Amino acid sequence: MEECKRFTLPSGFVFDVSRLVGEGRIDAEELEQLKERVQQAAEGLAQLRQAGLAKGHLSKDGSPEPVYYAWLPYVAEGHPNTPELLRKLKDFGRGVRQKYDAVVFCGVGGSYLGGKVLYDCHASAYL
């Protein structure tokens, strides 16, 4: 098995796995056995990033629902975070800071789904 101890992303973030493998830790044979499953996971994530859809992730009506979290770090047209949206958010933030002393956010956890549930509840057809 080829040994690789550090992965550096284009952003400069470094994954150092030098202490992952060794005596009392994961051994090379265990890693080799996981190779196919890791490859499948990587392919699934690549598909998720490209298409924004994940197998089995459906809306309440059963239709495929986009999964946006994989796109959030990428500021680009056609993604949830566009340059125009970020400009609008910054402008909005400046306006809020000038007008209000405090802002209360009602959330239910740290996931995307918490905000989605609140949005679905409060932005219904009855409003």
Description:
The protein has 127 residues and is mainly alpha-helical. It is built from three helices and two strands, in the order E-E-H-H-H. The chain has helices spanning 28-51, 83-99, 112-122; strands at 6-8, 14-16. Strands 1-2 form a two-stranded antiparallel ribbon. Strand 1 and strand 2 form a beta hairpin. The longest helix has 24 residues, at 28-51. The radius of gyration is 21 Å and the shape is extended. The mean pLDDT is 82.
Provide key terms for this protein.
127 residues; mainly alpha; two-stranded antiparallel sheet; 5% strand; extended
Q: Outline the biggest β-sheet.
A: 2 strands, antiparallel
Which oligomerization state do the chains in this entry correspond to? single chain
| Measured distance between first and last alpha carbons | 60 Å
The fraction of residues in strands falls at: under 5%
Strand order of the largest sheet: 1-2
Walk me through the topology.
Blueprint: E1 6-8, E2 14-16, H1 28-51, H2 83-99, H3 112-122
Antiparallel strand pairs: 1-2
In short:
This protein is mainly alpha-helical.
